[in-house]
Amino acid sequence: MEPSTTLIYDGSFNGFLTAVFVAFDEKINVADIQKNSEIQNGLFSETETIFTHVEKAKRVWNGIRNKSHNAISQVYFAFLSETEGVEMMLFDYIKKLMHTKQGKYLDYSDSTVLYVSQLARKVGREKHRMEAFVRFQLTKDQIYFANIEPDFDVLPLISKHFRDRYADQQWLIYDVKRKYGIYYNLDHVEMVSLNLKDIHYNKIQKSDAFTSEEYDYQTLWNDYFKSTGIKSRINPKLHTQHVPKRYWKYLSEKKEAV
Fold this sequence. Notes:
By secondary structure, the protein is α/β, with parallel strands linked by helices. It has two domains: about 5-125, no CATH class; about 135-255, no CATH class. About 40% of the residues lie in helices and about 15% in strands. α1 (about 15-25) crosses α2 (about 55-65).
């Protein structure tokens, strides 16, 4: 019986791609691929720690992209879903992709291919929701700040949208669930960690972190939001389908609702 190995990586996408490269290059019988923060020892497998190597990761990235531009986005989006066991699912997906003559014609009747596609779509929907539901508040440091709490790790996917849209303003979007954020300093976007003592919900009680003008603008926005609503056309069920309640605590126009 060929011995199997569990590959341990640092949790990053480049780390995962490096693990895939090592598995292919060394012809490893892979039992599992796990983040170093979530190691679960297998009964019948050895472990090998994989150190992230950007060039090796790029070779896997380019190999997938050369097979199919659609596949590379599917792999990246599905990885950001953080679904338990997604690494082995993606490893299986990549193996199948590499064995096809034309990757763009992957068989969606295959359970692995279908599942990865479904995960990628879910992450894509969350990305679009975050682009629509982020509400910035102006801090006294003249930085536009927003909390988010997405179901998936979509910060890497939304940075370009906000960099293009708010290129003349400093802003910071912070994921309170994953405890990191993206900060734009008028030149480039970088990832940051904060010692955030308070989560700034869009609540009626004011915070000293934000300018008084910020709350004046929020009042104007809330008045506009209420004045444009037509009571006879309100459809609460449809509204919550488009704006799920889990996002309301971060929407300034929903202050009174939460």
